[in-house]
Design goal:
By secondary structure, the chain is of the alpha/beta class. The strands form four sheets. It has an eight-stranded mixed beta sheet with strand order 13-14-12-15-16-11-18-17. Helix 23 links the parallel strand 15 and strand 16. The protein has 28 helices and 18 strands.
């Protein structure tokens, strides 16, 4: 029998004290649906159980990183539904990203709580706006503009203001901030001063651009992303009958990542609630990293003041990270200041001990990227899956060096923030093919010789481009193959978990996952900014570029801005389950002035300096590696553009040895011959083409046309091993001769 609402249910035989607690991340891809309401509570620790059974009145869950907050709130919803206390259609769970909402829907489905709405604030508001617009306003809802930058540029042009790409992005962000903080154009100059905000241009100019932007939208009959919330709020405020209709539909609310709500989102939540208090919020003030968008932890920190009788539960048992990682995370916040810091949670790791975090200082950024790739290769050789490794950085502009380094090391990678998995063209085509095979497979000769579900899927997807071997090269062909390979792996996991399943069962699973945006894992090391990494986790995390001016970022000047940068690093640290590496480079480019210093946030956490390549152990147990310019790399002076003479610092320009904008004198015919050779060489060694040489390296070769090994070795991207392995062929092609016969085998261990 289910426990009465608000009371803890009796623990099952396998309790948390006896090893029944399960990790925050489900151990199985396809778990069985719990057989009863009480079974939903199995495996929860005491605090998670307290959350799951607190179904009366306002509830505030203060949940540290890795403590299973999503697990706790989804089990709370599922327990209430399965016990008959909550009606599924009366529950609205809201969060901030489609991925998080999809994960929540997926977990609720696995717990047998179907019918619960789990959406982002914008998605929930848009559905209501579409439904009530004809009644409240009349006619069709205006078209939604997904990318407002073009309109902002036109608005600036009307003001006779020219914005470059960076300024356009910044001004667009300022307009978004105005709207979520409910600041009208004429009030912007005063509001930016009051908020202590650094305007990217003169506030009066931004105010004018904002005014013309709103006029342009009205002229063209369109609305933007923020208008969805503003218009929904306006309708609920002005039409009591519509507000009551919404409140009769949704009677119980759950808000995840509550530290990130903006004033506008809080206003919408208040209107949804009305006079009721059936609200559960979950958050962690130490993970507030989006204040530039208008997010504020004040609503979380003031929750007890607004709701004096609220139930407050703290989750501090960290199931994600080892004690070593947790120790570093706690130490990072120990020096934090401000109101959020006063409410920080001291995490307690529940995992076995692991390796110490490693701090590494490099001579320059290319070496940092190269050595990071080398360490990742070591982890892959030890059996750590590529999908369980991430490189995290402060800005997206830092990505290119690491893309290049991973490509040079033949390590697959994926950039965080790409198109959603189930919206990819090849995935939609694969789904249609699998659906057709499930329906008419008995008459399809393609499946005649298949013996199980995975072989059926392989046979069907082979018609869409899947092969047993990954294709050579990168780009669209490789991306398509990776998507199809992810579906094959999912089919294999599904068949292993449910041996009697059919192709129709798999198609149904894919449909449910697509609806929930619960994508399968794509193999490859993840490259992501620290902001994009929020809510994710990996076995191994490399935090790179940790220098003053990058973290904290140079434009973080106020105490609160600096503290938000500290919280950003805290988020990065707590993404790691077991392996954690923190690194920085003393200069940007080879031979540059070594005038950088590591981030102030590492002070007190890492040991002092040490010579050579020694490894030291600090009092806290962390290890440090230093002096790693590398024995094979000779220090070089600044690299100058061979066309205009400007000093080069950008990774791509260093590859080309010229500015991107400077004219190219590339021999097009030579470049095409090099590309043809590269394809053959890649096929001979069974590797993607970029593992031989990247496109930019080939361009640099075709532009420089080296005539000896020394000249070829001077081109970035041509290291000692590649020179030994491919040099004879490349020089022969450059000389217009018949190239050498085949690829030279090189001992990769040396």
């Amino acid at each position: 029998m289910a426990a009465p609402c608000g009371q803890a249910a009796q623990p099952s035989r396998r309790t948390w004290q006896h090893g029944g607690v399960t990790a925050a991340t489900p151990s199985s891809l396809f778990p069985d649906v719990p057989g009863s309401a009480d079974a939903v509570l199995d495996g929860l620790d005491p605090e998670q159980r307290a959350v799951a059974t607190a179904l009366h009145g306002p509830v505030c869950v203060l949940a540290g990183a890795g403590t299973g907050k999503t697990r706790a709130i989804t089990h709370r919803i599922a327990y209430g539904v399965r016990a008959g206390i909550l009606q599924p259609g009366s529950v609205l769970a809201v969060t901030f990203t489609n991925r998080a909402a999809g994960e929540m829907r997926g977990r609720l489905r696995q717990l047998g709580a179907t019918g619960v709405q789990a959406r982002t604030f914008h998605s929930a508001a848009l559905r209501q706006l579409q439904y009530f617009w004809p009644k409240a306003v009349g006619g069709a809802l205006p078209r939604l503009v997904e990318r407002k930058a073009q309109l902002v540029a036109e608005a600036a042009a009307r003001c006779r203001i020219r914005l470059d790409r960076g300024e356009l992005r910044d001004v667009t962000s300022e307009i978004e901030w105005c709207k979520v903080t409910q600041t009208v154009a004429e009030d912007y100059p005063a509001a930016v001063v009051k908020a202590g905000r650094d305007a990217p241009r003169d506030p009066a100019e931004i105010s004018r651009i904002y005014t013309h932007y709103e006029q342009l939208k009205q002229e063209r009959g369109v609305i933007d992303f923020e208008d969805v919330l503003l218009l929904t709020v306006a309708i609920l405020q002005d039409r009591y009958d519509i507000a009551e209709q919404v409140r009769s539909q949704y009677q119980h609310f759950v808000v995840d990542e509550y530290q990130d709500v903006s004033p506008l989102q809080q206003r919408l939540l208040d209107l949804w609630l009305g006079e009721r208090d059936s609200l559960c919020v979950v958050g962690d003030a130490s993970q507030t990293i989006y204040s530039f968008t208008g997010a504020t932890p004040d609503h979380l920190l003031n929750f007890r003041t607004r709701h004096p009788h609220a139930t407050v539960v703290k989750l501090i048992r960290d199931y994600r990270s080892t004690p070593q990682v947790v120790h570093l995370a706690n130490g990072l916040l120990a020096s934090a200041k401000g109101r959020a810091a006063e409410h920080r949670l001291e995490l307690v790791s529940q995992r076995e001990a692991g390796p110490e975090p490693v701090y590494t200082e490099y001579g320059d950024e290319p070496v940092e990227a190269e050595r990071t790739a080398r360490k990742i290769r070591g982890l892959l050789d030890e059996g750590v899956p590529a999908s369980e490794i991430a490189i995290l950085f402060r800005t997206n502009g830092q990505s290119e060096l690491y893309e290049q380094a991973l490509a040079d090391a033949a390590i697959p990678y994926q950039l965080r923030g790409a198109e959603r998995f189930f919206e990819r063209q090849e995935v939609r085509e694969a789904g249609a093919a699998l659906r057709g095979a499930a329906r008419f497979g008995g008459n399809d000769t393609l499946l005649d010789h298949t013996v199980d579900l995975p072989s059926q899927v392989r046979a069907v997807l082979s018609t869409k481009g899947w092969t047993t071997q990954a294709p050579a090269g990168s780009g669209a062909v490789r991306d398509r193959w990776e998507s199809l390979a992810a579906l094959v792996r999912l089919a294999e996991d599904f068949a292993a978990a449910k041996p009697e399943s059919t192709l129709a069962d798999l198609v149904a699973e894919l449909d449910e996952r697509a609806a929930a945006q619960h994508a399968p894992t794509v193999q490859g090391v993840t490259l992501a900014s620290l902001h994009a990494a929020k809510g994710l986790e990996w076995d191994a995390v490399f935090l790179v570029g940790l220098t003053e001016g990058m973290l904290p970022i140079a434009y973080a000047t106020t105490d609160e801005q600096v503290e938000e940068e500290r919280r950003l690093l805290y988020v990065g640290v707590t993404r790691a389950r077991r392996h954690l590496s923190l690194s920085w480079a003393l200069s940007r480019s080879p031979g540059g002035r070594a005038n950088r210093r590591p981030s102030r946030f590492l002070d007190g956490l890492r040991t002092g300096s040490g010579g050579g390549a020694r490894r030291l152990t600090s009092a806290g147990g962390s290890s440090v590696e230093r002096g790693v310019r590398g024995p094979a790399r000779k220090p070089r002076g600044p690299v100058h553009c061979r066309v205009c003479g400007r000093t080069l610092t950008d990774a791509g320009e260093l590859k080309l040895m010229r500015c991107e904008d400077c004219p190219s004198d590339m021999d097009e015919g030579l470049y095409e011959r090099l590309r043809e050779w590269r394809a053959e060489a890649a096929g001979a060694i069974g590797q993607p083409a970029y593992c031989v040489f990247t496109d930019k390296t080939l361009i640099a070769i075709a532009e420089n046309v080296p005539d000896d090994a020394h000249g070829l070795a001077r081109i970035p991207g041509v290291g000692r091993r590649k020179l030994e392995r491919f040099g004879a062929d490349v020089l022969a092609i450059c000389a217009g001769e018949e190239r050498a016969t085949g690829v030279v085998d090189v001992d990769e261990s040396g």
